[in-house]
Amino acid sequence: MAGILGLYDVSAAAPPVDAVRQAVVNEVIDQVNQEFPPALLQSPSEADRQRIQERVVTVVGAALRKRSLRPGFQYEAQLAEDLTRRIVGLGFLDLLLPPARTDLSEIAIYSSGLVQIMRKGSVRWESVDMAPEAGEIWRVLDRLLGPQNKTLNETNPSINAKLPATLHNPGGGRIKALHPIVTPPGRNPSVNIRLYEQKPVKPDWLLERGVMTDEMMKLLQTAMEDGYRILIAGGTRTGKTTLLSAVCNFLPAGWRIVKIEDPEEIWIDRRTVQTVEARPQAVGTDVKPYTLADGVDDAMRMSPDYLIIGEVRDGRAAMSLFRALMTGHSGACTFHADSPREAARRLATVMGADAGVRSNEANQMIADAVDLLVQIGIRHEMRRVVAIANVSKELVKGDVGFDPIYRYDETSPVGQPRWEASGALNPRLIGG
């Protein structure tokens, strides 16, 4: 019987005899599936997990001795732990998640079976000595996607999902999975997991790591306290969300904050925060998607003091946000771009493509809706704020103009970042 585990697959660890070990594995899984209800195996409590593990240890020992095998205590314990992870956990993935590992920010599983990790604070991938088989990767992915009513297959080869929050990993995470049909060669899906910290990011954390100077942080503090409309731009893994999370600490106490995200990854330590989370259309259903633009439109009817969009990904969301900001609302968002001018150009492009806005109109909306642009990037493998600039309210030859306040000195030596100060924060113009 397949039970809760689905296909039986064997670990990459070398057994005494492959065929015998697989028979032992199958017997233990069958026995546990017969003794415990599927619902309990799917979502066990800590006490249930302990009880299941104790039973697995007993059944493993009995199955080995029935076959006159005495591989030793260490082997039996390792096999029991491996099987327990498969039955009530996420198999090999549990070895990379809290509480086993608390130092990781991202996990990548290649279609080839290679597993890589990225540590918190790093921008470099590291390979790990782990070789899960195709069946094991599929089993883990199915266990993650099943409760979310999502399936990765040839007709639906790309999936966005959540890594559920747990006692040891309260922030959860984000899952991106691609079917082997679009990630050849191999039988494995390609999986990327971004882990989130639920605890709020403190501004001092950025200062300690040289992301910016104390003077730059004080400027951002003033901007947040006065309700400036801020766009944070940066490339992949540059720390846009981390920076936005940190400066949200400066929002005045008592302000009603509404944040719209897909998925939730900004944590603000106060009770006056309402999260609105976008939702894609469920495959094979008539359930309508709930978009970032829908979230902004609904947030406007919730009397917010400050609006936050975790990341603007399309022109409709940008249009909804900018319209809100142009009517006197305060807010902040992030956007994927490698420079201030690229951010303006890309925003105008997606607003044109998704919402039919002409380029000059889009540029004027951006100028009217945004007071301050903060650009973050990676320099010498370290995250740095590379520019802070006022956004000009008058277009410059039809383009959005920027008045620099701080600029990163690209000649800075490794470990000694420098910034040039060339301006001051413009007065806040309510309503643009």
* CATH T-level topology of the largest domain: Rossmann fold
Q: Mind telling me the CATH class of the largest domain?
A: Alpha Beta
Please indicate the count of domains.
3
What is the CA-CA span between the terminal residues?
66 Å
Number of separate helices: 12
Largest sheet: 9 strands, mixed
Mean pLDDT: 88
Q: Approximately how much beta-strand content do the residues carry?
A: 15-25%
Q: Order of strands across the widest beta sheet?
A: 9-8-10-11-7-12-13-14-15
CA-based gyration radius: 25 Å
Order of helices and strands: HHHHEEEHEEEHHEHEEHEHEHHEEEE
Question: Helical amount among residues, as a percent range?
Answer: 25-40%
State the secondary-structure class: alpha/beta
CA-based shape: elongated
List low-pLDDT spans.
1-17
Overview of the structural elements:
This protein is α/β, with parallel strands linked by helices. The protein has three domains: 3-88; 95-195, 2-Layer Sandwich (Beta-Lactamase); 203-421, Rossmann fold. It has twelve helices and 15 strands. It has a nine-stranded mixed beta sheet, with helices on both faces. A six-stranded antiparallel beta sheet has the order 3-2-1-6-5-4, with helices on one face. Strand 1 and strand 2 (115-119) form a beta hairpin. It is elongated, with a radius of gyration of 25 Å. The model is unreliable at 1-17 (pLDDT under 50).
